[in-house]
Write a structure and sequence with these properties.
Order of helices and strands: HHEEHEEHHEHEH
Largest sheet: 6 strands, mixed
Radius of gyration: 18 Å
Number of strands: 6
Amino acid sequence: MLLAPHLALKFALGPLLLAQGAYARSVLPRLPEAEGPRQGQSGRGELALNLLIVGDSSAAGVGVERQDDALSGRLPRALAAHLGRRIGWQLCARTGITTAQAASLLDEVRPADVAVVITGVNDVLDQVPPGRAIGARQALLATLRERAGVRHVVWTPVPPMDKFEGLPQPLRWVLGQDAAAHEQALRDWARLEAGISHLPFELPVDDTTLLASDGFHPSAGLYATWADALATHIAEAVWPRL
């Protein structure tokens, strides 16, 4: 049985890729999660909806110092501006988690109407097969509905990891192929599952000016761009359905 080209390369370069992975983990700066409140309200007027942000280090604001400059600060403000109403929000995030581990963050979650889920990079790094990652997303979806009463879940894209300048080659290329497989599986699933959507947005991670000092996480500028895309999607494609 013939292997796909990138799988054959992974097999052939296994020892090198493992060494590069260990080296990258040792030399990449370990940036902290952003400081600041993990729940609050943005905007004025009548409450439009309660928003829940769930995910890994990018959800937790790694790459900036304050939550105000991360997604948890920028997205509620942008969404409140779009809708002209008040947004309640809560952040449940931890660096390093996979999709399967995200449900562990929801033990004390508050009720929410819409959830934004940011996972996938650690699935790729931990070599979780795409099919198993979709199973974890399905389980997480059920947990969000059961514990928080979430009515709609927006899944953010798995970023193109072959463009992360902080990773060495050929590891970067191989992880990029894996990330693309995860992203395609996510897109396919989102088209079939009711009550969810896939954010139609590709993170411009090839622009190093938009990355933090580790060449891996977003900077304040990229968080702003990402938040604007999410706010537009929720306001135009999700809010009318609610």
